[in-house]
Amino acid sequence: MHSPALIPGLHGVRRRVVYVTIYELIAIAVATLGLAQFSDQGTAHAGVMAVASSAIAVAWNIVFNTLFERWEARQAVRGRSLARRVAHAVGFEGGLVFTLVPLFAWWFEVSLWQALVMDLGLVVFFLCYTFAFNWGFDRVFGLPASAA
User: Does residue 49 lie in a domain region?
Assistant: First the structure.
């Protein structure tokens, strides 16, 4: 059972655009600060990477959520359980690691290992953030048609 949405009726492409816009604006701000902290190269340098990472994340978000919702629509059990939300967050963030670690290594001029270590702080944050954001977004806007 789920709580009623505070702002019901957001579905399809409109839902995805609102979701991605809010999610990525917050992500750019946090990633800029985190990358600047991890790299010691300042917020301007880190901000460029945060925006690039955001663009990559937006593209991945569209692909991943489309595939996830297609899978979800075929499931016998409806709704978004804790296990399903965890799987969603881990799948989304895991996909980003494969793209962002090499990009971080190049941009910040560090080894792949150093870039992975740098990314781990962001991954931990974004796993929690993605989980909490999705839960909050669904609470405000309701579940997508695939989970309702």
Answer: yes
pLDDT in tens, 32-50: 998 888 887 899 999 999 9
pTM greater than the 0.70 cutoff: no
Q: Is residue 6 part of a domain?
A: no
As a whole number of angstroms, the distance between CA 131 and CA 66 comes to 17
As for how many domains the chain has, the answer is 1
C-alpha–C-alpha distance, residues 60 and 51, integer Å: 14
E-strand stretches of the chain: none
Q: Are 139 and 6 in contact (CB under 8 A)?
A: yes
- Spatial distance between the Cα atoms of 23 and 27, rounded to a whole number of angstroms: 6
1 falls within a domain: no
CA-based max dimension of the chain: 49
Is 111 a residue whose pLDDT tops 90?
Answer: yes
124-147: pLDDT as tens digits: 888 889 889 988 988 888 877 777
Which range marks the domain in which residue 59 is found? 12-141
Residue 95: exposed, middle, or buried by beta-carbon count in 10 A (0-12, 13-18, 19+)? middle
Select from 124, 98, 99 the least CA-distant residue to 38: 124
Count of C-beta atoms within a 10 Å radius of residue 89: 20
